[in-house]
Amino acid sequence: DSLDLRLVMSEKTLGKRDVSTRITEDVEASVPVVPRLGMFKTMTITFGDQAENHVGMQKLGNGLAKEGFTVEELELIKQDVEGKADWKCELVHLNDAIKDLKDIQADPAAVLIIRNGLQYLADNKFTNEELSTELGSLEWDTKAKMYGRIVNKNARYNLCFAEFEQAADYENGKGTVVSYEKLPCLSRIREEIGKFGEKSESLFAEGNLYYNTSKCGIGYHGDSERKIVVAFRLGATL
Predict the structure, then answer these.
(1) Distance between CA atoms of 158 and 177, rounded to whole angstroms?
(2) Residue at 6 is within a domain
(3) Residues 138-184: pLDDT tens digits?
(4) Would residue 36 count as lying in a domain?
(5) Is 159 exposed, middle or buried, given 0-12, 13-18 or 19+ CB atoms closer than 10 A?
(6) Which whole-number Å values give the CA distances from 133 to 206, 226, 234, in the listed order?
(7) How many domains does the chain have?
(8) Mapping DSSP to helix (H, G, I), strand (E, B) and coil, where does residue 82 land?
(9) Cα first-last separation, the chain
(10) Is residue 231 part of a domain?
(11) What range defines the domain where residue 58 resides?
């Protein structure tokens, strides 16, 4: 299982959303699906200043943050995590990939990877298996409103997480929101992430459930809906 935690710095959006997908989602919502999944292949939970069930649908949050984590803030988080215990972190400076391209100007950007980051955040309060069961037993959204109509989601299923509950209302562009109050493991992770600093407090979250790694997945894209990004993945490599 991939249990690493990733924090992304981006003062500006790093790229635009890639609308291409490996499996098209533009299918009329008439095919029967089984929404409740006790077992899953791969799941990614992304915490941020905003969250959405699908592009073009309702955005949860208080508006787009002014900026994400700075490189300096990521360096301080790295020092703090490594100083508390024997945790391995990697700070990947993205600008290194274009340092030989003199005609390209880019803002400083980096990704902090905390190896076995979920174990660090759990602090022995729960196991990865308990977290997997908690999230895997939820009823995930298998539909979304796209191009003015309700369609099946084939590339992945979704859920959003916040301090309130909401039933899906696809016709009005709203997906399901699950309250943190009902998810003690995920709530604990959110609380611990909040200790990274003011920017990481009280974050919303969205989940992507890739129920079959041979069929699911989307192309490379930039998440223009958020500036603050803290994410983890459970399951097989996608």
Answers:
(1) 10
(2) no
(3) 999 999 999 899 999 988 999 999 999 999 999 999 999 999 999 99
(4) no
(5) buried
(6) 17, 27, 11
(7) 1
(8) helix
(9) 11
(10) yes
(11) 42-235
